[in-house]
Amino acid sequence: MSPDRTVLSVNLNKVALVRNTRHLGIPSLERAATLCLDAGARGITVHPRPDARHIRADDVPALHRLVAARPGVEFNIEGNPFHNLMDFVRDLRPHQATFVPDSESQFTSDHGWEFPADADRLAPLIAECRSLGVRVSLFMDPRPDAMAAVRAAGADRVELYTETYASAWGTPRQAEVLRQFADAARAAAAAGLAVNAGHDLNAHNLADFLRGVPGVMEVSIGHALIADALEEGYARTVRRYLASIASATEIA
Fold this sequence. Notes:
Blueprint: E1 7-11, H1 13-19, H2 29-38, E2 43-46, H3 59-68, E3 74-79, H4 85-92, E4 96-99, H5 119-131, E5 135-140, H6 147-152, E6 157-161, H7 163-168, H8 174-191, E7 194-198, H9 206-212, E8 216-221, H10 223-232, H11 234-249
Parallel strand pairs: 1-2, 1-8, 2-3, 3-4, 4-5, 5-6, 6-7, 7-8
Helix pairs in contact: 2-3, 9-11, 10-11
């Protein structure tokens, strides 16, 4: 996929979290995905953790089938490749696998891979994904010095972990932190990596991030988008996020 502007992938974990509080099958993940894609999202992201706290194993193939029926839409599966992620990759061959260094009991993703320390153990799994035709993105902190080693390990992309930017947004540190992400994105591009981004991005801070960080191919947004959708509905929310992206990445 070579979009003219940053594409939006909607993470459905929090929809699954609400559903899992009952045995009624509502809210429906497939209905949520359909409404988001109909509104213009170009991807669906899931993060099926081993404890099935939100996305469950049987959700993943169902959503994969839904996305596969829509040309130009991508399915991104996140997770730790040393836990359960590779089983899904081998069975389904999604468009993208995002490797995230979560522990099994971790509350939420809160750090990226360490390079060069993690390179040797990740490289064979990256190679396996690519042999299956699956693009690999590594969840990374904004460290320019790590990007060449990430590329040497075989990854196609990095997903920049944006929590530090979200925390700094609207404070005197915003510009300084945004420069760190811009430097990391430039280093990634120089190494031959494409750039994704995600974690705590929302309708308020997204446009500033995209204006300041060059070449972001995809943003994966779940928590804030689903929270907004509780008030506004999926379609209106997705369109609002797409408007933020358009305002930041309008082609002259």
